[in-house]
Every structure is written in C-alpha cells, then in structure tokens.
Amino acid sequence: MTTLATPRPSSQGEAFDADAVRRQFPILETRVRGKPLVYLDSAATAQKPRAVIEAERGFYERDNANVHRGVHLLSERATQAYEGAREKVRRFIGAAEAREVIFVRGATEALNLVAFTFGRQRVGEGDEILLTEMEHHSNIVPWQMLAQERRARLVVVPVDDRGVLRLDELERRIGPRTRLLAVAHVSNALGTVNPVARICEMAHRKGVPVVVDGAQGVPHAPVDVRALGCDFYAFSGHKLYGPTGIGVLWGRREHLEEMPPWQGGGDMILSVTFEKTTYNELPYKFEAGTPHIAGAVGLGAAIDWLGGLDLAGALRHEHDLLVHGTEVLSRIPGLRLVGTAPEKAGVLSFLLGDVHPHDVGTVLDREGIAIRTGHHCAQPLMQRYGIAATARASLGIYNLRSDIDALAAGLEKVRRMFA
Amino acid sequence: MSSELDDLYQEVILDHGRRPRNFKKLEPADRSAEGYNPLCGDHYTVYLRLDGDRIAEASFEGSGCAISKASASLMTGAVRGKSVEEAQALFERVHRLVTEGPGAADPADLGKLAVLSGVSAFPTRVKCASLAWHALRNALRAEKQVVSTE
C-alpha cells in the first residue's frame, strides 16, 4: 500500500490503538449466525462509529429544519450544520473553496453530474473519452451513455496481469480527439492505487481534464485534490465511515462556473418566472431540492472523527493488515490473489481453486464472516482476467489481525468442504 | 459447521457440482434457452431434444456456483422422458421446494431433487438453484431469449 498523499501530522490525535478504535463501532459487537461478526466488506460500505450515528441522531433530535429557507432558529442551526459540513469536507480534501464542494447522493451521482454537464459541453461527435479497464460500472456507464448521445467513443487503457495501469498505453491513447479522462483513484475490485498525480500531468500536458472516482480513495489515505491536480474528484460518504445517501463532487471553480445546472428545482435558483430562471451561485446551482442534510452532518462527523485519530498510525495499521492478509492468504493451497499491484490499498480479491466465489461467500457467512462475492460492478475487468467473479475481503480502519485469521480459518473450512 | 450449511451442501449437491451430468451441448437440439444471473455471473444454456411431446434428452453447459451447477445437473436427469406438461409441473414444484422448503413440495417423490430443499434456508441462493430451471421453462415455451434471475 502506498500513501495517496502525505499524511497529515498526527500530533492532534492519540497514538493509534486498533482495539480502542474498533470499540467505537457498535455493530462490530453484534453476533451474526451465533458467531462474532467478522466484517471484511468495507469496500462495499464501511461501518459507522458511534460519533457518526450520534451526530445524525442529534441533528434530528435537536436541529432538524430545512436549510437556506426559514428565518427561524432551527433553520438557522440546520443551515449552519449543513454548511459547516461542507467546510469540513473542503478542509479534508484540501479544496481551495467551500463552494467547490457539491453535496450529492454518492460517487455515482457525482460522476453522472459531471458526465451530463461538463461532459455534454465538451464531448461531440467523433470525440473520445478515455477510461481504464479497472473502472467500476459507475465510472463507465455514464460515459457510455454520453458517448452514445454524442456519437463519441470510449477508449480504454489496459491494465497488466498484476492489475497495474499501463501508463505507457495511457499516454499513447491521449490523442487530439480525447476530451476527457476518467480514472479510479483506487480500484474497488483489485485494490490498485493509481498514480493520479502523474496521470493528471500526462493528461494536462495535452489539455485533457481528469475526472477521478475517489470512492475507494478517500477511505484509505488523505486526499489533497490540489496536490493530485485533478479537475473533478468524486466520493461517497458511506465508504468513509459516514452515512449512506451523501457524497461529494469536488470540481475546480472555473469548470463548475461554466457548467450548466444538472437538475432543476428549489434552492438552485435565484429567481424564477415562467419566462426565465436565473440560476443560483455555486455550490447551490448543483443542489436542487432539499439535500440530505442529516447525511451531510453525519459525513462531517465522520471527518471530525477521522481527524481525531492518529492518521499515520491508522494507515500503518491498515498497511500491516494488508501485508498480513496477503501472506496468510498466499499460504492457502489453491488460492490465487487477483490484483497484486505493488501499490495497493484495502482489498484482497481472490479465487480459491475452482470453488465458485458464491459458495465461498455462503460458507464464510455461516462463520460470521462477511465478504463480497461477484463481479464487484467491474465486469469489463473480470473479462480482462477471464473470470466471472472473485471473492473479495476488504479492510476498514477497525479490522484486526484476528479478522484476517478468522478469514483464513474459514477458507480452510471451504477447502475441506469442496476438496 | 451449521446443519443448515450441511443441508445446503449435501453430498449429492457437492458431487453434481463437481461432476455435472449431461454437461454438454446437444447437437442438434430442438430447443435451447440461456439462463444468466448478473449478480454472480452464473451463465448456463439448457438444451432439449424432443420426441413428440416428450423430452428425449436434456443437457446443459456453462459456468456457475456449486448450487446452480448441481441443480442444472439434477434437472437434466429428472426431466428426461417427461412430457412437456410434466416438466412444467416439475418446475413449479421445484420452485416451491427451493423457495418455501421441504414442507411445501412433498419432496418424497421428487427423488434426488429433494436435496435442493436445503436452499430454502438461504434466500440469497434461491436464484442459483432456480437458474437452470427458468431456462428450462423458457426452452419448453420455445422462448429463445436469455432469462435472468435478477
């Protein structure tokens, strides 16, 4: 695993104590199927610390009202909480201004927003949109829809057998018709960390803007959008220990200002007559309708909570777990890791002999072990490796070595059953 | 190991999953239909050779988990010699068996197919067990399109 950017100084937090961190996640104390829960599916969604659960609950119990509307006290408090969360996100990703932070439902909605505003402005007939073979469907399908609409085409950058993006091929594919490059920061199916800063340099040299799917990026290391140099960065709150239904699109102000609104409705306007509507300023131009206020508050709480940890220690802990997991799984006869890039974060994708991942998942589930099985919304990537599915164990800040060891023991059981 | 898990992965299932019977393409086939589960990528084609109203031979090919493969394997054995109507009735019974459990479908005269009843305790795996059966039903109806259990 690599650090995605320089970790922030850890002086404000306590030294990282994995057991103490784990105890802050109430769900991890539950038992499933009579066994202690071993949660190894954080790449699908992360569990929530008490601080996040309490923040959302506290908002509904004390501050709930609509934002940007009322003159009454609760509306004022709700607006402060919502805008306060935006500022927390701004600091968290190193954005220049809070108005560059657009609240959306999640990374998927963020990517759709870019495709159908910025993309529509930039991509025309015969143009090319550059993607990579390791993209999640959410960073493929919106571009495909746009390409169909505009009679443009998708150009795909291959990955090598380890799951490393072929940068030479990427550079070769940036051509005179390339209008946009969309790339995952971290692959959800393989764990590969892409060198986004370098990719942005390559693309910008040829005047091509870069959209980064950061859904798996933000949970595993600090992100600084200005250091990365990208044009857009999308992520979901729920993979960052925050609530579902809230996510972020960050974009450079000059782009956001040029882009037309995406959805129309309340809050995104300054004035409306039946003849003409004047759109609101950033970020509200892109936030039509009542937003997920409590979700934003929860996301802000997740960011605060992460900020109180020894982040360097947390990263070291996660890296150790990944190394330990790689070693332990590699020792299991017949097990093949899918995705062995030198720069990896948080994901152990594998096949166990010819046992179908679904069967692996069902047997592990009966041991209380939650993993994901299937194509991980990355079917083109599965095709690249000639497989239909993998089993994927993915790590969160709360996992311990004992979780990995439970997984290994569960896999031994699978092996005995299907031998 | 939990007994539900034992019920799901009974020896018959594991055996048919490992060594599926009638696992081939029928050429020529009178009917064929595909079954696809996009959730897990399981994908089978079921082939039928008919003799008048009777299924003279059934086979399948494709890939998927132990449950879907064993179910397809058992199915191709079970429908051989049955009339189209009987095979359709069997589809209904097996569907009840895997969704509602052994109480629902009188497994006594279902023969080996009774082992599929263990699936009912695993709601997420019902689609695996019924995938090939849905393809069979479409083949019987002479529908050529891909069926999906999603």
Q: Could you explain the architecture of this structure?
A:
The complex is a heterodimer of chains A (419) and B (150). Chain A is globular. Chain A has 14 helices and 17 strands. In chain A, 52% of the residues are buried. In chain A, the strands form five sheets. Chain A has a seven-stranded mixed beta sheet, sandwiched between helices. With 419 residues, chain A is of the alpha/beta class. In chain B, helix 2 (11-18) packs across helix 3 (66-78). The mean pLDDT of chain B is 90. Helix content of chain B is 39%, strand content 19%. In chain B, strands 3-2-1-4 form a four-stranded mixed beta sheet, with helices on one face. Classes of the chains: A alpha/beta (419), B alpha+beta (150). The interface between A and B is medium-sized, with 19 and 23 residues.
Helix content of chain B: 25-40%
Stretches of chain B where pLDDT is under 50 for at least 5 consecutive residues are none
Structural class of chain A: alpha/beta
DSSP summary: helix tally of chain A: 14
Question: Portion of residues in helices of chain A?
Answer: 25-40%
**Can you summarize the main beta sheet of chain A?**
7 strands, mixed
Q: Strand order across the biggest sheet of chain B? A: 3-2-1-4
Q: Descriptors for this entry?
A:
heterodimer, A: 419 residues, alpha/beta, 7-stranded mixed beta sheet, 4-stranded antiparallel beta sheet, 14 helices, 17 strands, 38% helix, globular, B: 150 residues, alpha+beta, 4-stranded mixed beta sheet, 5 helices, 4 strands, 39% helix, 19% strand
